[in-house]
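Quick one:
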Amino acid sequence: MIDTGEVRPVTDDTFAAEVLGASLPVLVDFWTDWCPPCKRLAPVLAELAVEYAGRVEFRSMDADDQPETARALHVLAFPTLALYRDGELIRTVVGAQPRHQLRKLLDAA
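Output:
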């Protein structure tokens, strides 16, 4: 799949292929509709997806609509950001983070 510099939704059914099978590092945003910090973080991630296009892929997963993956990964608070590289979880961050912290996370991918 071509990285288009956008945050694309991922589902329980597509998580393995789109995240674990990705050729680039992938940042997954686990969020819920009732989470105000999640809503504030979404536009920041959209901007970073453009900035990091071709280097990091961005996915979002509504944990209420797609509970299996979030439950299997023990995601208990929102937002939770999970960074994957070569199919392995390399870092998890809980809570909305400032842009400079997100850049540090992405630069380490």
